[in-house]
Description:
The protein has 522 residues and is an alpha/beta fold.
Amino acid sequence: xxxxxxxxxxxxxxxxxxxxxxxxxxxxxxxxxxxxxxxxxxxxxxxxxxxxxxxxxxxxxxxxxxxxxxxxxxxxxxxxxxxxxxxxxxxxxxxxxxxxxxxxxxxxxxxxxxxxxxxxxxxxxxxxxxxxxxxxxxxxxxxxxxxxxxxxxxxxxxxxxxxxxxxxxxxxxxxxxxxxxxxxxxxxxxxxxxxxxxxxxxxxxxxxxxxxxxxxxxxxxxxxxxxxxxxxxxxxxxxxxxxxxxxxxxxxxxxxxxxxxxxxxxxxxxxxxxxxxxxxxxxxxxxxxxxxxxxxxxxxxxxxxxxxxxxxxxxxxxxxxxxxxxxxxxxxxxxxxxxxxxxxxxxxxxxxxxxxxxxxxxxxxxxxxxxxxxxxxxxxxxxxxxxxxxxxxxxxxxxxxxxxxxxxxxxxxxxxxxxxxxxxxxxxxxxxxxxxxxxxxxxxxxxxxxxxxxxxxxxxxxxxxxxxxxxxxxxxxxxxxxxxxxxxxxxxxxxxxxxxxxxxxxxxxxxxxxxxxxxxxx
Length: 522
C-alpha cells in the first residue's frame, strides 16, 4: 500500500522488490486523485468578488459550495503530466485494435489544422467571411466522392455512428417519398456487421432481422434472397466485414436487395482496406459513412467532435441533410434552407453547424500528401501488414475461417488455448506487460474468444517483427502451461488487473476520503 492506501505494483524484477513509501518508482510517480491533492476550501487562483448582479438561473442556481478541490498551478500541471505518463498511445507503441484503425497521425496534418483561418474559424461567422473554409470543404467532398464512386455527400455528421444515422435517415426518407413507409420497416444486418449497425437501425425506428454468415465468414446471397421482401427497407453490411474479410458477393447482394425495392447501407469503417482498389458506389452501395480517423489519419475525436461524412447514391442523394454545399454563380455556397436547394428534399438537420473544420483540414492534407496512388498504397500496406501477422502466427494461434487471405485485420479465436488455463482476456492482459496495447477482444461475436488484430499501414517491418515475436513467445508460454504469467497479468502496469465486472455492476461514483494510515512504530 502507498500513502494513499492504494495497492502499488512492485518494480520489474521480482514480487519481493521493496515498495516505496511514496508509491513512486523513480521517474514513474504515483499520482493521487485531485481530491486527495487539493482542498475544497482553498483555490490556487484569486478571484475578485463579483459585482452585484441579477441571477438568471432560477431554481437551477447553486446554493452550496461547488465542492471541487483547489490546486495551485504547479500542482495542476504536475497532476496531468503524471497522468499523461501513464497513457498508452499511438505515439508510445502499436495499438492493434481491430476495426478501430489506430494509425499514426502525421504531424504535417496537425500543422495545417492550426493555420490561421482554419484553426480560428467560428461557426457563427458570416458565410461571406469564410470562402476559404468552404472551398476546402468542397475539395474534401470531391476527393471523398471520387474515392467512393458516389455522386453526393454530407459532411455534417460528427462521427461514424452519427454518419450511420445520417445514411439510414436518408434511406428512410427515400422510402417515405415512395409512399412505402408503412410497409418497409425491417433492416437486415449480417452477423459479421459492425456492432453499431443494429443500434443505428433501432434509432431510426426500424426493427432488425439478422442474416447468418456462412462457414467462411461472409454473407451468402442466397440467404439474403430468402429474407428480402416488401417489408425490407435496407440491408446494412460492413465491407470488408468485421471478420477481416472482403464480401466478394457484394455486387450480387446489392442486385438482390435493389430488385426487392430496398436499399444497401455499407458501413465504411474499413474503407482503409479497399481505398484506391474498389469503389463502394460501383458495388451498388446507396449510403456509406466514412470515418475520417480510420482511413484518413485524423485523430479519434480530434480534441472535440469527430467527423463521419456520408456519401450517397443517386437513389437517395436528394434526401441529404442540411446544410448543403453547392457551387453557384458566386462560388461555393452553403445552403441552409431546404427551399433554396435545387430539387433537394433534405430530411432535416443533424447538427447545429456543418462540421468539424479541424478534421476536414487534417483529412484533406493526408489526401493531398499521398495523392491517388499513395492512398492506394496505404490500403495495400495495411492489408500486407495484417497478412504478415497472420502468416507469422498461424502455426501457433488458430484462425476460425482458415489460413486464408484477410484484409486490413486478421482474426484469431481461442481454440488454440483450449485446456491451457489461459483465456483471451488473460492473453490480452499479458500483452500489457510486454508494452503492447491489447487487440480487440471477444469481437466479432460470431467467433468464440475472438482476438482481432489490425496493425495498419503505419507500422514498419521491424515493428511488425517484434510484435509477432512477442505474441509467439506468449503463445508458446501459454501452450507450455505457464498459466501464472497470464492469470495475474498485468504485473508491471501502474495498476494491476481490475475487477471490471464489479466496477460495472457496483460503480463508486463519489469520492470519500480514505482512512488515515498510522506511521509505523520504530
